[in-house]
Amino acid sequence: MDTLLHTSVFLWISVGFLLAPQGSGANALSSQCDLVFRNVCYEFVEELRNWSQARSDCEKRGGELLRVMNSPVKLFLKKATKQRNTSKLTWWLGEGVKGEPSGEHKCTYMTLNPLRLNTTSDCKQRRSFLCTRNLPSSSSTVDTAVSGHASRVRPKRSMASSVSNINDLLREAKEELRRIETTIGEPTNPSRDDFVRYLLEGTNRLKLETTVPNNNTIWNIVNCTTGIYFLALRKCDIQTNPNAVSFFEQVFEIFVVIAEVLRTSESFVFWHRTGTVYQRSFKQDEIGDQILGSQAANEFVVLPSYSALRADVEKYDTITTQMITFNENPHPYDEITGIVCTVIISNGDGRIKMENLPEMIEIFLPRTDVAVLMNSTVVLEENTYSLTTINVTDPNMTIIFSVQPNVQESLILKLSQGSPPTSTYFNHSTILTPEGLYRWLITPEMLQQTSGVWYIDARHVNSTWDSNMTLEINSFMSKCLFWHVGWEMWITDGCEVGEKTTPYLTHCRCNHLTLFGGSFFVMPNHVDVSRTAELFATVDENYVVLVLMCAFFALYLLTLVWACFADRRSRLKRKMTLLEDNHPGAHYNYLISVYTGNRKNSGTTANVTVMLTGSEGESETHSLADPDKPVFERGGVDMFLMATPFPLGEVQSIRLQHDNSGGQPSWYVNKVTVQDLQTQHVFHYFCDCWLSSDHGDGTTKKTFHAARTDEIANFRYIFKNRTSTGFRDEHIWVSIVDPPSRTPFTRVQRVSCCMCLLLCTMAINIAFWNIPVDESSPVILVIGSLQLTWQNVMVGIQSGLLMFPINILIITIFRSIRPRSVAKKPKREDQKMDAVTVPTVLKDIGEVVSLVSKSQRNKISETPRLESITDLCSTLDTVHEFIQLMQGECESDPHWVYCSKFLLAGLCHLLMDLEKLDGRNVPCPHDYQQALNVANVLVRKAEMVFSCHLASCPPTVTKQKKSTASCWLPWWCVFLGWFLLLSISAVSTYFTLLYGFQYGREKSIKWVMSLGLSLFQSIFILQPLKVIGIAVVFALLLKPVSVEENDEVKQVLMGQREKCKRFTGRETL
């Protein structure tokens, strides 16, 4: 049986220009042996030598020039040199690296980034070189390509023993597939290769049987083959241990054999999960000009005439042809995608090898993953021309250049390299006529295998043409290669791009039977930045885009001024309030957040009070007011710091009340949260009601109970809360009007981010605009003569999606910047201290005893109003009893710590006042002296009790605060955010104007109309979907409500401590 050399062709089409792989790092390749692959040492030597000297140097190093260049080696070299500077270096390789001896006058060298092999007859050129040498086998040798599981046990030998019986073989194959799928590290190389080899042997035996196997057997073979195929493609170590080419060839061979076994008629089609098999049989004189495959599916092959095939087929009576397609490229590690196919011609005994045919085989494959194609419109006036710039990165590319005029006139095109064509300087020229469909194929030969910038000049044949002519210009690049199994690399020999190639259909012409493939790549419209001055000089003729940009910038400046004033007002409202009626000696702190609703007239002018009731006591009634700012405005969030003498325990309820004063006393409360700043526990109170004599139930006083855990974690509550706050914060456009009241992301920053996103949207939209109309695109909406197609919607969505990286980067920076904290100097007490009198002394100590009595654990009753120093002595006796009670508590807890601290602060204040009080002015000096002595003793005892409880039970400090706090950026990152914002805005503005001037006035007007659709999608579709999506995620994950952990809380707490210092006359207690 003749052996067919399997090859493959890959067609790569790109629009505008094809991007080369990214350059590597700045460090040069080391000459040391730091690269090892499959027990072979690879040394990149940068010293320049001719080919003979390079070979001698490698031999002196104990090795030789690289001779093996297959796909695993290519993949290894690509990954190993990715971070190295190899773009300007070329490397000598050894003889036969392409699969056959190079000959006496042919030497091979290699370029990296991209990797390409080249031959030259000038072997005396000085280049770097790549040496290889085998390493001794050692357990310490690192193999970067073979999986660590490669040494595991091979598949069961039962498959090998069952090859003779196809049913037994398939039964064992299913068991082996089940084992491979459920075993970690499988499939290993041995198990994969043995599996497909045994399956191929069993399938080949079917050709020897006289009867056609039943469909169940055929489908079992297909399922087992596709099963191992997909498992091998998706194995964990596919990047470091790619599948061998022989594996794909055996899988391919199984499908070929199945098609041969099923040959029962002249024509049939066989579909499987990985592709399709088309098979037809002909008499040898009927095979010429036949079509294989499906023209309806745009995947077919047109064979050459019989005269071109006669020498290969005339000795056979019946010829069988097979066209086999694969949905995926069987060599994925070569970064090739798209549908591939192969053509096999065989007789009854073997396959017929066809190479160097006098006529070309035409191959057509569909492109299902086509992106939009870009083009440009140019208006030619008298004595003007169109100049198109194309950046050629791969000289093996074919450029398909199309110029469609609005009138049936001939055009002359000139091609030049390096500079625009002139009447005397150009490389090639042609005349395009209506009969030629105004298409020009610029082949690699015309490009002279030279990369760089090429220019195409298009103008009317008649230079005196005086009427305006509109040219629709589009271009893309394509390339045909085939996969050489022996060399395991892609080459272009014997294949060229066909003239019927379109962005939607691959057309290749080859003179041999190959495995064909197609792919497509699109670039934006190319704009020549060197013509900036020339294009900007046309502003008098085309001012559409400039006027639009000026209008947007004017609107931005006006909005920016408004945002500055709005931010100034918001900063005043953001102030966190320390309640003035907090007792100076109280040190247990609660942060109360009151959310006023967004309903009409929901704010209040009345005086509001609050009282907390906990499981261990209740607080005093506190007035929620701030002399420096208005509170309880519509949609506002007001935060107050309340201090209590002792922990209240679980805050079970709160009581809100107002005095119905002011011009608009009615108040709609949305919710209230109380955060224990010591334990960081947050209590939620869902109000959603009016406190008003005119609305709701007509009451101005209500008690609200803490929400249960299931109410807080309720999907409806979290979704509603996150959606409401999301539109005010996450929706960048809406948040300008009504942002959250407490956020570092200011209105000025939000307006600037919106402007930046608008400019980026315009730049991306104008660069990817003016695509060819897809006639098959369904019409979604028709309004008069305006039709909205699915193609229009997809272009807008793609432009919007490109905004996400910029959106996330800049907005996240501004949103995550910690406000710069500036230490505020404490306010000086300019007013004179109140004179110390007996009534004030009695009032202060009575208030201390009254606050302590609000906890049942303290077992102290509230004392009646004190009238004299005598009453003070009896009250001090009560305090003494309370100190003894605390002293007798053998187990300490936060309650006794804070109670003893509060009592100590009150006694220190009492002692300070008694010392200031003149005993001669006291009605009973004896009682005064007694009270002074008792106060001194009680202060010392209170200090001792507080110290004991503090040592046994330190005050609660949130240790997890650092781990639960949000990730804040330092304040100076605001400059980084502004730098990125201004830079991106400037670049976007520049390219938008450049494209606009290049398009011309008429085309710019059409672009402005289409821009509205993209903005509409961004504002009213993409942004709301993002907000709702985030709300759903939060609701499903039941994310807890974040707590306040910022510098402002620390500053307010410091204010409470300053009050305590002045109250006690001590720096610390």
Write the layout of secondary structure elements.
Layout: E1 8-15, E2 35-37, E3 40-49, H1 51-60, E4 64-65, H2 71-80, E5 90-92, E6 107-111, E7 116-120, E8 127-134, H3 158-161, H4 166-182, H5 189-205, H6 215-233, H7 245-261, E9 267-272, E10 275-283, E11 291-294, E12 299-302, H8 306-313, E13 318-326, E14 340-346, E15 361-366, E16 375-380, E17 386-392, E18 398-405, E19 411-417, E20 428-432, E21 439-442, E22 452-460, E23 469-478, E24 480-484, E25 489-491, E26 495-497, E27 505-510, E28 515-521, H9 532-536, H10 544-573, E29 577-578, E30 588-596, E31 608-614, E32 617-618, E33 622-624, E34 637-644, E35 651-658, E36 667-676, E37 682-691, E38 701-705, H11 709-712, H12 715-729, H13 747-767, E39 779-783, E40 786-789, H14 790-801, H15 804-815, H16 838-852, H17 869-888, H18 894-916, H19 925-952, H20 961-964, H21 973-999, H22 1001-1037, H23 1047-1064
Parallel strand pairs: 1-28, 5-8, 29-34
Antiparallel strand pairs: 1-23, 1-24, 2-3, 3-8, 4-8, 5-6, 6-7, 9-10, 10-13, 11-12, 12-15, 13-14, 14-28, 15-27, 16-23, 17-22, 18-21, 18-23, 19-20, 19-22, 24-25, 26-27, 30-34, 30-36, 31-32, 31-33, 31-35, 35-38, 36-37, 39-40
Helix pairs in contact: 4-5, 4-6, 5-6, 5-7, 6-7, 10-13, 10-21, 12-22, 13-15, 13-21, 13-22, 14-22, 15-21, 16-17, 16-18, 17-19, 18-19
Provide a compact summary of the structure.
By secondary structure, this protein is α+β, with helices and mostly antiparallel strands. The protein is built from 23 helices and 40 strands.
